Amino acid sequence: MTNFPPACRPRNSLFGRCWVALIVLMLSTANGHAATLQVRIPGAPPSAKGHASYFPKLLRLALEKTRATDGPFEIAYFKHPLSSLRQNAELKKGGAINVMWDGTNGEREAELLPVRISLLRELNDYRVFLIRAEDQEKFRAVRTLDDLRQMRAGAGVNWPSTDVLRANGLPVATSITLEFLFPMLRVKRFDYMPRGVYEAFYEQRVHASDGIVIEKSLFLHYQVPFYFFVSRDNPALADRIRRGLTIALKC
Known about the structure:
The strands form four sheets. Strands 5, 8, 9 and 10 form a four-stranded antiparallel sheet that branches. The protein folds into two domains: 37-118 and 225-250, Periplasmic binding protein-like II (D-Maltodextrin-Binding Protein, domain 2); 124-221, D-Maltodextrin-Binding Protein, domain 2, CATH 3.40.190. It is α+β, with helices and mostly antiparallel strands. It is 43% helix and 22% strand. The protein contains twelve helices and eleven strands.
């Protein structure tokens, strides 16, 4: 039997009960004050600031809907706009951002984890054209895809739309960033930019002084679901966003 000095001898297991109480208190405190989730998102390029502001608001809504169950959060913008290609790379390696939003395709879903709730429903599936104002009559003569194949589209190098256009035999000139496409259109590197109906009107207003207009007689229809994406190493964040969006859809 161990002999404790009088000052250290436990009395009625009080010492043991104190440690148990302390551990319980620490656990309850930790549960009551969950760590703040840090969410880092890309800033929008100048030509997209108007329509792109929708996605951070939607993300905030999803996180607010899960605040009671998952705890507080903070959203911070990366200080510089990132191209779609760079966003993909940063998210994949757990770099400057941990959430992005974009159209989906097989390659993107192989590298990143989608939150499979479409953020735009079918609104992203209808594409009108940004063109040079002087070319409107040329586009009025287009009646078939074969007619359109005589012209060249402009799109981002890794946009899912680029894959769709090329798969349908439509020539495409590409750029790393959205912002480069507008001067390329102006100097006739290509003939038209297919843009989602939620994108085109804001972008046309930004570049109206360069003679860019919305084509009046044509549109393309193809399916490109638009999702939030996170790193494949962060399924908990994807799950929280998914649950928040699901709750919001029911309201």
